[in-house]
Design brief:
The chain is α/β, with parallel strands linked by helices and about 325 residues long. The chain has helices spanning about 40-55, 95-100, 115-125, 185, 190-200, 210-220, 225-245, 265-275, 295-310, and strands at about 5-10, 15-20, 25-35, 65-70, 75, 80, 110, 135-140, 140-150, 150-155, 250-255, 285-290. Strands 3-2-1-4-7 form a five-stranded mixed beta sheet. Helix 3 crosses helix 9, helix 5 crosses helix 7 (about 225-245) and helix 7 (about 225-245) crosses helix 8 (about 265-275). It starts with a strand and ends in a 9-residue tail after the last helix. InterPro entries: ATPase_NBD, ROK, ROK_cs.
Length: about 325
């Protein structure tokens, strides 16, 4: 029987993924369901329970000592609740208690999805070896997390580094979070696609209107698609540079579905970083694509729960 396994959950606006992960970061069992994001809170919870039930059906489940959750935010790790902007049925939802109940009382650790991705990238990815890093998930939403002084910095409620909801356009569009001109409102996948469509871009014969389709059009030279990605890159650069100036990070790691656009995103992002990160102590800031891919949320959730599984002080994810 495997020992020291962790059940990991990665909860976002599009999918709920689960896995059994060992202490070396190997994913041994997987499960996944679509997120019924527009349904009521209990319907969303039933999807979470279905993922957990599929994991529990594995003979390896007996080796699981804890559950780690990386959830779209904001989260309140101190209260065990979540209020994801893209899942309106969950507001102050007691996710930790519900998952603990569904798993027969296993210890549960909750972090935001950006913090989970940060833990994964600092443990096994592009932020490995850096003592000060910002890691970002740019997908349906935009999340982030910080490593400061070689340690994961989560803040009191687990939301430190939540760069998606800082304003980079004071007169910009209202954001579902209640703010205006947020990084997420400009740089998330749905908003890249929305802006391209509003400015005259039209999808191909397959009718695909996702950010991936906009990226493909930009790669083929479509000026409207290119402009939408450049606007997203500028927003990301402004947010990253502001963060670097505030806390002196050495690297910004970008993951999530939008990062799959490759140089369509990263070429203008690196260019705009030079425009915004102008002070001497941030000019050497590095921007890099994430390495842990679509498993970042699961690996980071597992890393966050490892202390509970082993009954010792939190790990620092310093490699």
């Amino acid at each position: 029987m495997q020992s020291h396994l962790v059940a990991a959950l990665d909860i976002g606006g599009t999918k709920i993924a689960g896995a059994l992960v060992d202490d070396s970061g190997r994913i041994l069992v997987r499960a996944q369901r679509p997120t019924p994001a527009r349904e009521d809170g209990e319907t969303v919870m039933r999807a979470v329970e279905a993922v957990l039930a599929e994991l529990a059906a594995s003979p390896l489940w007996a080796g699981a000592g804890a559950v780690g959750i990386g959830s779209a935010g904001p989260v309140d790790a101190s209260a065990g609740t979540v209020s994801p902007v893209n899942v309106p049925g969950w507001r102050g939802y007691p996710l930790v208690e519900r998952v603990r109940r569904a798993t027969g009382g296993l210890p549960v650790e909750l972090v935001g999805d950006g913090v989970a991705m940060t833990a994964a990238e600092h443990w096994q990815g592009a932020a490995r070896g850096y003592d000060n890093a910002l890691c970002m998930v740019v997908s349906t939403g935009v999340g982030g997390g910080l490593v400061l002084g070689g340690r994961l910095h989560t803040g009191p409620t687990g939301n430190a580094g939540h760069i998606g909801h800082i304003s980079v356009d004071l007169d910009g569009d209202p954001c579902p979070c209640g703010g205006r001109g947020c990084v997420e409102r400009i740089a998330s996948g749905p908003n890249i696609a929305r802006r391209a469509l509003e400015n005259g871009w039209r999808p191909g014969p397959d009718g695909d209107t996702t950010a991936a389709a906009v990226a493909a059009a930009a790669r083929a030279g479509d000026p409207v698609a290119t402009a939408s990605f450049e606007r997203a890159a500028r927003a990301l650069a402004a947010g990253i540079a502001a963060t670097a100036t505030l806390v002196e990070i050495d690297v910004a790691v970008i993951g999530g579905g939008v990062a799959g656009a490759g140089e369509v995103l990263f070429a203008p992002l690196r260019r705009f970083i030079r425009d915004y990160a102008t002070l001497s102590f941030v000019q050497r800031l590095t921007v890099a694509p994430a390495l842990t891919g679509t498993d970042a949320g699961l690996l980071g959730a597992a890393a966050a729960a490892t202390p509970a599984a082993r009954g010792r002080a939190p790990v620092t994810f310093s490699g």
